[in-house]
Amino acid sequence: MASRSVPTPSELPEPPELAELDVVEELDVIADGAGDDLPPGMPPGEPPEHPEGAELTLGEHLNEIRQRLTVAVLTMVLTTVFALVFASTILEFLLEPGREALPEFRPIYTELLGFIGAYIKISLMLGLAGAMPVIVYQIYAFIHPGLTRAEQKWVMPIVGMATIAFACGGAFAFFIGWPPALSFLLNFGQDIADPQVRINNYIDMLTRFVIWTGIVFELPLFLMGLGAIGLVTSKKLLGMWRWAIIGSFLLAALITPSIDPVTQTFVAVPTMGLYVLGVVLVRIVENRTVIPVIESDLDDEDDEAEGQPA
Known about the structure:
Layout: H1 23-34, H2 58-85, H3 87-101, H4 114-143, H5 149-187, H6 199-216, H7 219-228, H8 234-238, H9 241-255, H10 261-285, H11 290-307
């Protein structure tokens, strides 16, 4: 019977030591695998940031709205406080057309808070006007990630042109439309009764007239927008010129504070000019609408997606 050889202790293999198991290398492999889901260039262990174009959660949207609303409100508070300092000077400037129409013109107030109300109303309106650039920027910054490339290219020029058009309309109302209207209202029937104008009534009529005239001056941009999306054409608008004249006088009758035909003509004639300008703008954009630009961008993205390997 053959005898089995028993290995001596010196011939037995040595047990592997812990240092030779290369545990650190194994952990690195695991860490590398865990970091595969991170964005490129993001080192493991750091929280991922939201890349541009990524969808935010509802909580993140609400937090962004809160931050941007806070900036807009604080800006308006600062501009309103600044306007309060110069409110007396501004009121004197706004009352000047009344003094030109009637040398002894001096507004009154019949409530204890009548003058203070007009004082604060002017300050709030000027504060809102001064803060408007910041407010518009905060709105644009919030909606910017959701806009297409074509929309991003058009939105800021349109906002700038709309602001300029509104300012031009307000200036036209105060310097050209308001003086004849006020002269008619203060001098009509003066041989029978003396005008006692409350300052609140004066400021309310003036601000309404300025704001609505500024809105009317947005007519060319409104027509251009309709032409850009293909709802109207320049040929169709030219065919409606009779209705445009009637509509201009009806609109002037609604927004002017007086009923005299002179003041209404002062507003109706520029409105017809704005309509003609709108027809010209529609003629420029009607053959290159925004919709084909957006569709071409989408087609380019689809072509790029099809060219990528699966």
